[in-house]
Specification:
CATH superfamily: TonB-dependent receptor, beta-barrel domain
Shape: globular
Number of strands: 26
Helix content: under 10%
CATH topology: Maltoporin, Chain A
Oligomer: single chain
Largest sheet: 18 strands, antiparallel
Distance between the termini: 41 Å
Number of domains: 1
Structural class: mainly beta
Order of helices and strands: EEEEEEEEEEEEEEEEEEEEEEEEEE
Strand content: over 45%
Length: 420
Amino acid sequence: MLDQTNLSLGGSIESHWSDTFSTHLNAYSSQYELDSENTTVNGQQSLTQTNRVLERGAKLNTHYKMDSKLHWLNGYQFSETGILNFTDVDQPPFKSDILEVMHTHSVFSEIGYESSNQKFLARVGGRLNYFNNLDTFDEIVVEPRLNMHYALTDNLKVEFLGEFKSQATNQIVDLEQNFLGIEKRRWILSDGNQLPITKSKQASLGFNYNYRDLYVSLESFYKEVNGISTETQGFQNPFQFGGEIGKYEVKGVEFLVNNKTNDYSLWFSYAFNLNDYYFEDVVPNTFPNNLDIRHTFTLAGTYTYNNFRFGVGLNYRTGKPFTEPFEENPINTTFFPSRINYSEANSSRLPEYLRADASAIYDFDLSPEVGASIGVSVLNFTDRTNILDTYYRLNENDEIEKVENVSLGLTPNFSFRLSF
């Protein structure tokens, strides 16, 4: 049984004190709660869990227009985040009820510049965060940021982005077999020790060309995220129980070309990513990220003829990594309950993913005031079976079961829409 609820409330007020100075005040409150209950088939064990996240805060921005070229943004933000994790198991008896609260104070400042000919735009600034976990620790984190745009010609522009970020909330990922894999994530707060504040730094350099009906973009990027735990990554290998702290690095290139007229639009995109984990205390300490998909291609097009609109798309990507058990000695019986002996982490790959879709929409008027449209689409019209994920588990007889999550096959859809 799963029961999830979300509730949020917020408001804002914007004031213009003069032609050059304005303020914006925003306040909010939100609550998320997940209640779950799982009973084994034979009824011998019942597990009840509650994950509740309550957050409230306020943010004040001030904007000062120094002149036609310079703008100055300043602000302060406060947030209070409380997270409750409750667990109750009846066999063997175990109960845990943990409530943690984090206060975050942030001040930020940014200066924006725009040249007279509008060829050069830049924003430079930073953010100072003070994290205070009321039970365990406090920490100050500095986050510089830079954003620059420059028009090399009327049609060719270059853009550079660089920033640091941090966060004190994370999601613990339970084993895939919990609750049949329907919901396996629970929010928790950083404690400064077993789960530090997650910090990232990233940069990108891109070129954009736009001339008449043609748009082309090329972007390279790099990102490093420190302070991640093996418990937050959803591992299905020996690392899923350890809680080791490490990082991941991702670097890659993205390319997009789009040709668009009043009658049709065609586009092609390609992305290359190299995404690796690094955990100092595991062997091997470097291995592919769970989301390391090296190559991704998309080819799509739309065509409009009178009141008809047609579309077709093709998506292809190489397989994501996963971990298989050892062939010779797959089960470790020295633990209770028994565990799977896995081979090297993420050393295997799923088959490639390929999906083709098509759609058609007809627009018409029911009256001068009421419009309508009828649409038909077919997802995966080749009816290809794509494996989305693979993992292994032990059944009650200590036998290994292979579980594969597969995509939908040929899936038709029909829609009817009214507009007035």
